[in-house]
Specification:
Blueprint (H helix, E strand, L loop, with lengths): L11 H13 L9 H18 L10 E13 L6 E8 L4 E9 L5 E10 L2 E12 L5 E4 L3 E6 L2 E7 L20 E7 L3 E6 L4 E6 L4
Helix pairs in contact: 1-2
Length: about 210
């Protein structure tokens, strides 16, 4: 299921996240503070767990622009990871993620790219979606492309790739990077990465 943003009983945390996305797109001047967005993300994640929300793979397909993210830091006591400060992505850089699926399958391809002016750095690789397991999308980035002014300067395999593409579907989640999605709407998605950070992506218009 996807979250209905038109509901009259919309929780406050969804309102904050919607405002953050609208401000990032330039559709509103009311931009929530970074702390407010982080708190809203944590509430959305908690609500998804309490309601045991299970999302299908289909709503994730397409291109999404990174809107907001948090860092992480190691806890000084008892080990573990703590959230760092959150920030809106600066307009000078454009980070995008995309998902494509094999027909009738929960397997597909992930693309992760960053554009800085005329420079493009893009990673692609296989992915698989485990909706019933906390809406996890496991992936591996196996190919890298570097382009300048639309001209490819480098294209090849990623040496640090976790596994070989042909063996990807047999790898356990413990060996793969992943996103745990806790909010999927028509306009934006939110997830926690394996490293512990939180992020919001907004759908690319016209794609």
């Amino acid at each position: 299921m996807t979250v209905n943003l038109l509901s009259t009983a919309q929780p406050a945390y969804l309102k904050i996240l919607s405002e953050a996305v609208a401000a990032f797109r330039g559709e509103s001047s009311n931009r929530p503070s970074a702390d407010a967005v982080v708190n809203a993300l944590l509430q959305a994640e908690k609500a998804a767990k309490q309601q045991r929300l299970v999302y299908p793979f289909q709503p994730l397909l397409g291109h999404w622009q990174l809107c907001f993210a948090t860092g992480t830091r190691k806890a000084r006591q008892r080990g573990g990871i703590l959230l760092g400060r959150g920030w809106y992505m600066p307009k000078v850089a454009k980070a995008q993620i995309s998902f494509n699926a094999l027909e009738g399958s929960s397997h597909g391809e992930i693309g992760n790219e960053v554009r800085l002016g005329p420079l493009l750095v893009k990673f692609t690789g296989p992915c698989r979606y485990l909706g019933k397991k906390k809406n996890l999308l496991a992936f591996d980035l196996t190919h890298m492309q570097i382009a300048l002014f639309g001209r490819t300067l480098y294209g090849g395999n990623v040496r640090s790739s976790k596994i070989q593409t042909q063996a990807f579907e047999h790898q356990p989640i413990s060996k793969l990077p992943f996103f745990a999605f806790f909010l999927i709407t028509e306009d934006y998605i939110a997830a926690r990465g394996r490293g512990g950070g939180l992020a919001i992506w907004t759908r690319e218009r016209g794609r």
